[in-house]
Amino acid sequence: MSGTVSRGTLVIDIDRCKGCELCIEACRPNVLSMTTDRRNALGYLYPVLEPGCVACHACALICPDFVFQVWRYAEPVAVEEQGGGT
Amino acid sequence: MSAELLEGSEAIARAMVSAGCRFFAGYPMTPFTEVLEGMARLLPDVGGDCVNAESELEAIGMAWGAAAAGARAATGSVGQGLSLMQESIAELCFARVPMVVLNMARGQGDYYQATRGGGHGDYRTIVLAPADLGEAVRVVQLAFYLADKFRNPVMFMGDYYLAHVFEAVDTVAVDFGKLPPKDWALDGTSSGTGNARIVSSIMPTKRNAAVYVEYGAYLETSGEKIAAIECGMDPLYEEGWCEDADCVVVAYGTPARIVRYVVGQLREEGLRVGFFRPVTLWPYPASQLFAATRSARAIAVYELNAGQMIDDVRLAVRDRYARSIGGLSFDSSGFGIAPALTPMKVAARIREVMADIRQGVPA
Amino acid sequence: MTVLVRTDSPPVQPAKLVDDFAPPLILPGAHKLCAGCGEPAAMRAVVEMIDAMGFTNRAVAVFGIGCYTSFSPGLDVEVLQALHGRAPSLATGLKRVHPNSIVFTVQGDGDMVNEGLQEVIHTAARGENVTCIMLNNGVFGETGGHMTATTVLGQRTKNSLEGRDAKKHGFPIKLAEMLAPLDGVAYAARGATNNARNIFRTRRMLKGALAAQEGRRGFSFVEILTMCPTGWFIETADAPDYLDDKLASFHSMGVIKDVATGSE
Q1: Do chains B and C touch (3 or more CB pairs under 8 A)?
Q2: Nearest residue to B253 (alpha-carbon basis) of B160, B147, B350, B349
Q3: Which residue of A has its CA nearest to C23?
Q4: Residue B259 and residue B145 share a domain
Q5: Global confidence as pTM
């Protein structure tokens, strides 16, 4: 849904993910979800990001595989680039 | 410095301090206790540390940490306490950590433990067995040198006699030569540089090392480590009157001192006896023993146990026969005072062998 | 169709990096720990606090034997590898030779409370100025999920398949509470890495422990409850709640002793 503001964003190293889903649980604004059909090079489902990240870095702290790089925007960003994860 | 009349344990402790030992940990046990007492008294005065560890296991653990930090570190015990330390001794070999380990043994029953090792895997420790205090205060210092040179534990085989005999000895520092700096030792300063040091028996390299060594590949180098020591040093030994000896007596440690004396006495009687005394029990002076016994008609092994060094003698003399003229002998204390260890009794055993030779008894 | 945000490259809008993938002291490359393991988050917290307190080029880690051992080649920190249970005595020798270094052990519950209970108690009683860190997941993880001295009653492990039963398997040990009364202990605390809030609390505990070492106040101890879904035989996503319900209900979190603040 456009119009949602993001205070932060992530770079996700999807090929290191082992699909544990701890980030999904940890994410405060609930903007992370696991793919349902796409798998990474290791064969795991991996997380994708919706708008609304607040850069709380809970995902980075809890991730056992160091998959997340967390950025905080200088100004909150309203319109996000369309993505889809790669 | 000149010679001073000292009790064995004190002399050994002073010699260790002269060698630069600055960390010692131990657990009291007879007849090792007085060495621990000596180190506890001497080390603080030279800025060192002696810790009364709460178990033998912790003693060798503390010495391990101190050695990994680059200090000359030592521990010790008696055979029974060394039994507890076997895993650590093996792993110290794999981790390439130098350390001197003293066995102030109760008798001579720890030969297998010292030379074969009671730990796991493929490792050897250099084992030095002095016969008297004058030799002891020198070889204990040599032990530190060899430990640093080969980055391996070195065992010092003493016993109750050595611990408690009084002899005039000089415990001044002996210089055995230059050694490379311990640039592998840990002190925290390489952390965060991208080249942090690691001292490990399992994964000896960091992930970003030029050559990353996996555990299995590292285990495969165990044989090379052993060979490096064998090729890197000459075994130490003493021999006398072997060239024309009919009987060569092989002995080590304090009993060998008695054997040496007895053989000298028997020679004066005209008996053609010789003696051979390994000082390094590992690497064993096998080729030297082989050469010394070439023309002997009998090879006799005097050791106060059920027969341990005799295995190495047999390996050395190959197709010759070696007989035991020793045996277990303990007074009621069990601390390794051997009622059988008198010149007269030792002489009697040798005379039996000479009699057999005269009668043409085979081997 | 949900709108997704691109996450394959850094943002084009002006932004500040809050957290890199891993702290600089964790060398790049995959570790071999399971999906959902709580130990990497704990290791991250430890090295981040070492760095934050400016101790990086004085730090030496003494590793025990367990899953976490695979971090020893993966840290840009000096490492001394110990045998199972033996890290505290090695740490003692190391610290005595280099009193200005910051020495910490990394051990599991099986390592510290089973094999090495004597070592940690004596090191604590002597008040050695080292920091012992226990990663407590209530199982021997590396061997596949067996009972340790900290496994809680009712916890299923490979040798307590019906759940730990006091009559058959005896009672668990609360190590932080056991060490705290010793006079040599300056700091003892228990944290966890099952959610962000606990990770932040644990980081503060690590700071308190390292400060105790730096201030030469004595022995410091931080027990960190970590998740082990493999050893607990549960789904990775269920592990944070399992930790709260099963482990943290017995091994309670909090600062148990801090001589700096006089709390006990």
Answers
A1: yes
A2: B160
A3: A66
A4: no
A5: 0.95
